[in-house]
């Protein structure tokens, strides 16, 4: 890619993204004219959105009538509303003696039945409405084919306790957050494999959420992307934690719009409610920050995480790339990955694969479909051996 360059000023100033001008005087528009839409994009034609699908989800949430036994469960993580535990098995019968048979995952799932289950329990008394809303949005998302390729499968809402619990298949390889934190110990070739593999999976996953299910996730970050082991050395990355998610063109719940400052789009910190409400474009930006973090090996705003005011002001600037490249370790790692990328046949700057999602103005960002096409085109230019090695299911 010739139009996008990451430049370092001679005086040591911050990195900036610039567009070169072609010989006829017009700006390079490569990112705005991607190649043809990949075959998976036709999913939106097969499953056109209807408000009725969300209404149906409200009445079709699977109910599991049992009380989770968490006495020997392993704590996997916790958030504002919940704690998540891993349990080895579900009870075979409900509290009333009826056989307990959680609903099956979508029929085209490529994942076997789990050996472990994840139980998400409420950690606050006011979480009931949040859990019910999450169960509804997950039921809506799972009504579409291929959902289990992109979203951790939801099995049902536990009704056997006073406080609600959600049951999921357990992702056995941790989160993207733990992976990127430990990625500095991996060979650079493995880091590049992981980045390209995860880049394709998550951009396709976001395309599925946006274009097929009309769902806005509203809290994309490494901690909300779960990993499952596969027969290859590369894990499967899928979206999780839909507690703030909602269907576009509907009124968000009162708890929607939350998120993590360092992964928010600049407009989400506006006092204007129309701008601060999550959109498809803010999801794009959050995924861009997430993938930039994987490239760098840490949060682009690492130096500001202990200062809330400075962090918010930096996010508002909409220049995450500059902040990231001010970290010497991040700059060195990206330079090394860039060299390896080019040795493998990659063209242009590897940062360009996320830069299209990190434009400050939301109307300037690529949508999920355009981003998928851009990534596909870039990966296709690698040698055949390298592409097969990624293990991408496209």
From TrEMBL:
Domain of life, per lineage: Eukaryota
Domain Protein kinase, residue spans: 70-379
Molecular-function GO terms, alphabetical: ATP binding; protein serine/threonine kinase activity
InterPro entries named among the record's database cross-references: Kinase-like_dom_sf (IPR011009), Prot_kinase_dom (IPR000719), Ser_Thr_kinase (IPR053235)
Biased composition (Polar residues): 106-115
Gene3D superfamilies: Transferase(Phosphotransferase) domain 1
One Gene Ontology cellular component annotation held by this UniProt entry: cytoplasm
Entries under SMART domains matching the protein: S_TKc (SM00220)
Annotated region described as Disordered, given as residue ranges: 1-45, 91-115
PANTHER family on file: MITOGEN-ACTIVATED KINASE KINASE KINASE, MITOGEN-ACTIVATED PROTEIN KINASE KINASE 7-RELATED
Name under which the protein is recorded: Protein kinase domain-containing protein
Taxon lineage: Eukaryota, Fungi, Dikarya, Ascomycota, Pezizomycotina
